[in-house]
UniProtKB/TrEMBL annotation:
This is ABC transporter ATP-binding protein. One of its GO terms (molecular function) is ATP binding. Residues 11-234 form the ABC transporter domain. InterPro entries: AAA+_ATPase (IPR003593), ABC_transporter-like_ATP-bd (IPR003439), ABC_transporter-like_CS (IPR017871), ABC_transpr_LolD-like (IPR015854), MacB-like_ATP-bd (IPR017911), P-loop_NTPase (IPR027417). Keywords: ATP-binding, Nucleotide-binding, Transport. Gene3D superfamilies: P-loop containing nucleotide triphosphate hydrolases. Pfam families: ABC_tran (PF00005). It comes from Streptomyces phaeochromogenes. The keyword Transcription regulation does not apply. It comes from the Bacteria.
């Protein structure tokens, strides 16, 4: 066992099973995310990638198995505690950024800080810094409808990282972009996550996107079939 395998994971799932109606999306999937790493979860359409991400992020409760984050069983936490944790320790980015259409780029990024109780001035200052890190300084006043796809995803990433989360969950963050915009967004995400020490769980079916990760696991029919080094015993 190499020294990296002994690292206590920031997030660890074991034996996850989840059924949607009659579809068994996960059938005993196990994976761990190490502190500060970018982990790509790949697999064909329908293999269970998004369901796995939702279980790890505490958005969906698995039917079976465990999800451990900072010594807490996410799968057993009460809803209120889960949503607090998602707000304070996790950042989430989806394929279509899901920015608030009525708000400017600056206000979209400042919003999580305002909700956490920061002043308007501080929130705007920090939001501006994060827009800069993602290469969209100067676009503060644009509303989502006025942005390109790449700009919108950069703003979404800035919003996901502005609160200093421990983990960012990114579900096909470049799925709606052309390859040039996709490269730019992924390079910005990888650089910024590494700089801030944020771990990233990146769901993608695109090998070029997965190439930005430190490590890759593949899901097939709801189980992890490669990258088995992802599964280690938790030292708790
Ligand atoms: N809310 C839901 N209701 C019913 N079935 C669902 C639901 N969510 C997912 N599924 C089904 O579960 C299986 C796994 O879906 P999931 O979205 O996790 O896979 P995926 O690998 O992310 O797919 P894609 O790459 O197409 O997004 C699929 O067969 C999907 O149709």
């Amino acid at each position: 066992m190499s020294s990296t395998q002994k690292t206590v994971p920031v997030l660890a799932a074991r034996g996850l099973a989840k059924t949607h109606g009659r579809t068994q999306a996960l059938r005993g999937a196990s994976v761990e995310l190490r502190p500060g790493e970018i982990l790509a979860v790949t697999g064909t359409s329908g293999s269970g990638k998004s369901t796995l991400l939702h279980c790890l992020a505490g958005i969906v409760r698995p039917d079976e198995g465990s999800v451990v984050y900072a010594e807490q069983r996410l799968d057993q936490l009460p809803e209120q505690r889960l949503s607090e944790l998602r707000r304070t320790e996790f950042g989430v980015v989806f394929q279509f950024g899901q920015l608030i259409p009525e708000l400017t780029a600056l206000d979209n990024v400042a919003l999580p800080l305002l909700l956490a109780g920061a002043s308007r001035k501080d929130s705007h200052e920090r939001a501006g810094e994060w827009l800069e890190r993602f290469g969209v300084r100067g676009q503060e006043e644009l509303r989502p409808g006025e942005m390109s796809g790449g700009q919108a995803q950069r703003v979404s990433l800035a919003r996901a990282l502005v609160t200093g989360p421990k983990v960012v969950f990114a579900d096909e963050p470049t799925g709606a972009l052309d390859s040039l915009a996709s490269e730019g967004v992924m390079a910005a995400l990888a650089h910024t996550a590494r700089e801030s020490g944020t771990a990233v769980l990146l769901v993608t079916h695109d090998a070029q996107v997965a190439a930005y990760a430190d490590r890759e696991v593949e899901l097939r029919d709801g189980v992890v079939v490669s990258g088995a080094d992802a599964v280690v015993e938790m030292s708790r």
